[in-house]
Amino acid sequence: MSLVLDPAAQDLLFRQARTANTFTDEPVTEEQVQAIYDLVKYGPTAFNQSPLRVVLVRSAEARERLVSHMAEGNRPKTATAPLVAILAADNEFHQELPALFPHFPQAKDVFFTERPAREQAAGLNAALQAAYFIVGVRAAGLSAGPMTGFDFAGVQKEFLDDDHTPLMVVNIGKPGDDAWFPRSPRLTYDEVITTV
Question: Can you give the pTM of this predicted structure?
Fold first, then answer.
């Protein structure tokens, strides 16, 4: 059985999409970021908790501060990408649950009164939303360069607070010259899927 999604869209979102390592200088607009968010906000999370928070690094001063926390190999592309986003998990997401999960507003107090439970839920669900965000960037006709090679404590101290845990840094823009590394292999269906 074939997929319902148009093959060109499948290619755009998955088969032809790659992690970009160089970018053109074409800017990424606020309107593009708004359109990405307005699409990906519908991706499911447990209790609709939606813990992902995004810091857009646009100023030269903020970019310089961020680059200083990146792993050496990630510095040049982070310094030159048109837009950089810090994706983080909000460990106090439960404060929004009465509005986000109105049919069971007491979920905030039933399941998430303890910080360790919130951190675990926020990390898992924000990572899920981060994946939606990357696919949303692709849906906007842009390329994403997600990275976890950075000083997490440094980025948290510089751009976040104790209630937000950084997950990844994502460079965003139109791919530049020699943007792609060779595609790495993928596991086969039989290596991943088990039927019981």
Answer: 0.95
